[in-house]
Design a protein that fits this description.
The protein is mainly α. The protein is built from 17 helices and two strands.
């Protein structure tokens, strides 16, 4: 019997365009994480107001919700590499302006959210095009490994980026913005060097039918619908990480350092598992592996909910992050491989809306449940709900449950 995971025959480093793509994603990812942490610190130090912190979140959320479908249409109508380049040029210019205005002392409280809004709009437009390029950069047989390697860079950015930004902040916010601008410029240079060939798509005007074509495609493909909806509801119910400050203070009785360890544990688990998956090939039973990893996410959430010991909580969060990485790699690969190239932009745009919405609503749901029932019951309900979702989806999407390979052949 063939093993579930085997060393892949292809080497990612042999594909120079993928290496350029990965370096671009890594550079912009680190830059964005540094930007996110520094903007909050700068605006709060100026205003001492939670309202303005909320405004930073709002100006990032609105474009991701309102422009995503347009971004998907653009990704399927125009050269994706040029769309990414245009988006990153706009982001780079806005960051350079932040650095200049901060250095000059003219970064007024209304200027920062305005420029972050511009960056968020450009990032929303760029994202579906960037994601949709990946399947054309590597053979199908190693797409899952490429997806895992891409996810590893994202996790590394989440772990190191904020800390690096905080360290550099001692030299001034303008220095952090300047370094961030340098990272975005490096990303832009990498995008310029990668070779990406896209068949010229037929140009069609943006109508409601074309904008919502991604939704219609997902609805007609059971495997794609199952994967995306599983992610939506599992994340919606499994938002225990939003309650970490309560668990750190009231349950585990630890301080800020302990909270920092708790926040890092899922990312560390995801990073290590992602690195492993980037060197191994999934060969069979990918549907069941995905379902079991989501179930593992639910079990880890339950263990965290009832843990009274710091070591066990860290272990549960580490396992939670690892399970999430396995399911994320399989889900991402399945969506990319089951979607024709001319539809990838719009499908990825719809997927991004679901992911962003489920993350934000999941945190809201966990917070409301915790306020009503307490943090431990809220986290436990989330873990049980995730297990119920897995059981229902295995019954409702039998084709996905029996799927053997990532390639639908």
């Amino acid at each position: 019997m063939a093993p579930l995971l085997t060393p892949s025959d292809g080497r990612l480093l042999q594909h120079r365009s993928f290496v350029a793509f990965w370096l671009a994603r890594t550079s912009s990812g680190f830059g964005f994480q540094m930007l996110s942490i520094i903007v909050g610190w700068q605006i709060y130090s100026q205003t001492q107001s939670a309202f303005w912190l909320g405004m930073i979140g709002l100006v990032q959320f609105v474009p991701s919700l309102t422009l995503a479908l347009w971004a998907g249409h653009i990704a399927d109508q125009f050269d994706r590499r040029r769309v990414v380049m245009a988006g990153q040029v706009v982001e780079w210019v806005a960051i350079v302006l932040l650095a200049w205005l901060t250095w000059q002392g003219d970064a007024h409280v209304w200027v920062i959210p305005g420029l972050i809004f511009v960056i968020s709009c450009a990032r929303t437009i760029e994202s579906p095009s960037m994601i949709s390029m990946l399947p054309a950069l590597v053979p199908k047989s190693i797409l899952a490994r490429a997806t895992a390697a891409n996810a590893v860079s994202g996790q590394a950015a989440q772990i190191v980026g904020p800390a690096l930004g905080g360290f550099l902040y001692a030299a001034g916010a303008d220095v952090v913005y300047a370094v961030t601008a340098g990272l975005y410029l490096a990303s832009l240079m990498m995008v310029l060097t990668l070779k990406y060939e896209q068949a010229p798509p037929p140009r069609t005007p943006a109508t409601l039918a074309t904008l919502f074509a991604g939704v219609d495609f997902i609805r007609k493909r059971p495997d794609v619908l199952g994967v995306i909806s599983l992610d939506l509801f599992a994340v919606l119910l499994g938002g225990a990480t939003a309650l970490l400050p309560i668990f750190a203070h009231d349950v585990l009785h630890t301080g800020p350092m302990g909270l920092g360890l708790l926040r890092s544990a899922p990312a560390v688990g995801a990073l290590l598992v992602g690195f492993w998956l980037s060197r191994r090939a999934l060969t069979r039973n990918v549907g069941m592996i995905m379902f079991m990893s989501v179930a593992g996410f639910g079990v880890a959430t339950l263990c965290f909910a009832f843990s009274q010991w710091m070591w066990l909580s860290l272990l549960a969060l580490f396992a939670l992050g690892g399970c999430d990485m396995v399911s994320m790699v399989i889900r991402g690969s399945l969506v990319q491989l089951d979607t024709p190239d001319e539809m990838r932009g719009r499908v990825n745009a719809v997927n991004s809306i679901f992911i962003n919405t489920s993350n934000q609503l999941g945190e809201f749901e966990s917070g409301m449940l915790a306020a009503w029932l307490g943090a431990v019951p809220a986290a436990a309900i989330g873990g049980i709900g995730t297990l119920i979702v897995v059981a229902l989806w295995m019954r409702w999407f039998p084709g996905l449950r029996h799927r053997q390979r990532l390639e639908n052949s």
